[in-house]
Amino acid sequence: MSSIAVRDDRRGGTKPRRVLRTTADRRTAGTWRAYAFGLELTGDFDVPGLTFVEAAEARASTALVFVDQETLKTSWDQPEAERVIDQRDEHGRPFMTIDFHTSFGYKVEARSYGRFIVSPEGTRVLCAPFRGKAWRWQRLLIARVLPLAATLQGLETLHASAVAVDGRVFAFIGPSGMGKSSLAAQLTLRGATFFTDDVLAIEIDASDRLIAHPGLAVLSLRERELESLREEQRETLGSVLSDGAKTHFMVAQPCDPGPLTGIYFLDRDAEKGVGHIERLAAPDPLLLLANTFERSVRSPDRLRRQLEVFGRLSERVPVFNLKIPASTTAAQTAVELEAHAHSVTVAPQPAA
Amino acid sequence: MNQSAGTHSHGVLDAHVTIPDHVVFRSFPNETVVLNLESGKYHGLNPTSGRMLEALRKTDVPRRAAMELATEFGQPIDRILNDLIGFISDLKRRGLIQIEDGGV
């Protein structure tokens, strides 16, 4: 379990020693130290949405190193590497690939974004962006490469958005476009603490507790989701990092790791009327496993850990089906969900 | 699962059935999840199949496992043997068990 400064601060009642801002603020200060997905990250280049820490004794550290394409190429000359992920566009051309080599680690490459090499233990990431807007390759780094590094460092990842309510973490799982991010945005506007968008890092800590770690402080909303927000709500949510197919907000609400207390599976219900939330008596572990985010790491040790962590999830964390009527807005669902989250009780986890 | 134990696959009933090191499983209230560490594939078993797998691991020999299961479930031994042969065949096809001194 990480023992980053802010956790000590909370126990000691002193003012947290971390702030949230873009790394551009720290360029002149040299190397920065940040925290995401349970990792202590260090680097010296701009990465929006990181939560900085002044002192950290995180469970694992990952150094981000900016290099040019030539340097990266000389670091990866492995024709025998195994292709473990091969995503293609509608024309059949490679869009994103991940190659694996036992000694050299993982090479992540996405057209128009950049190339990255993650060391076998996830302790070092070489970043070589392609030309173009910085935000493009930075998005790939924070949305795809850092979760990979976290997995290599011993964490598991759920494809989920999450918020914290009174220090307890609640995750939302559902297909793309179902409204996970909208729900997180609406709950954040109602006073919950934004925790992560799209990827939730979890682990069983040294005290045998299931702990969730915050991701990047970036929330991405589609245009139609954005339209449902009033201007003042957008401003409350955070500053806009970039827009395009989605608008990316930097949500100014850093938070601590916390116990994963509930998981909601979002499901559209054709029926009109109010939504309803139903607890699953015995959650299917395969259903949870199917929502693993990181699939490129297939070592026996990782697979064993994945089964154990997701097994514990299904045994210990209440899982709910949240039926959302087609006519219900994310704001309406958030009201219901907020009340429900406060009522969730769980069997006590082992003491810290 | 409908082979007759009296006419087929007698060999496997007295063979040694083992779960290889690259296969692990974990039991849950409503199912058992079997993981093949070589392929990375997960397989879900219903509670009865999960119990069969547990009995096979414990006894090594299908005929002994069948006797144990017949007592536990209160079913005729022939029926259990038939079910077990089909189950073993399925596990073997998926690479989740090894069979020595026999085959399915």
Strand content of chain A: 25-35%
Radius of gyration of chain B: 13 Å
Main beta sheet of chain A: strand number and arrangement? 9 strands, mixed
Distance between the termini of chain A: 10 Å
| Main sheet: strand order of chain B | 2-3-4
Helix-strand pattern of chain B: HEEEEHHHE
First-last Cα distance of chain B = 12 Å
Helicity of chain A, as a percent range: 25-40%
Low-pLDDT stretches of chain A are: 1-29
Instruction: Compute the number of strand runs of chain A.
Output: 21
CATH structural class of chain B = Alpha Beta
Number of helices of chain B: 4
What profile does the largest beta sheet of chain B have? 3 strands, antiparallel
Task: Determine the number of helices of chain A (DSSP H or I, runs of at least 4 residues).
Answer: 9
Query: Can you tell me the overall shape of chain B?
Result: globular
- Strand coverage percent of chain B: 15-25%
In short:
The complex is a heterodimer of chains A (352) and B (104). Chain A is α+β, with helices and mostly antiparallel strands and 352 residues long.
Task: Name some characteristics of this structure.
heterodimer; A: alpha+beta; Rossmann fold; nine-stranded mixed beta sheet; 21 strands; disordered N terminus; B: alpha+beta; Outer Surface Protein A, domain 3; two-stranded antiparallel sheet; 5 strands
What does this structure look like?
Chain A is 26% helix and 34% strand. Chain A is α+β, with helices and mostly antiparallel strands and 352 residues long. Chain A folds into 2 domains: 5-154, no CATH class; 157-343, P-loop containing nucleotide triphosphate hydrolases (Rossmann fold, 3-Layer(aba) Sandwich), CATH 3.40.50. The longest helix of chain A is centred in the middle third of the chain and has 19 residues, at 134-152. Chain A starts with a helix and ends in a 9-residue tail after the last helix. Chain B is of the alpha+beta class and 104 residues long. Chain B has one domain (10-98): Outer Surface Protein A, domain 3 (Alpha-Beta Complex), CATH 3.90.930. In chain B, 44% of the residues lie in helices and 20% in strands. Chain B has helices at 10-13, 47-59, 62-73, 77-93, and strands spanning 16-18, 23-27, 32-36, 41-45, 98-100. At the A-B interface, helix 7 and helix 8 of A face loops of B.
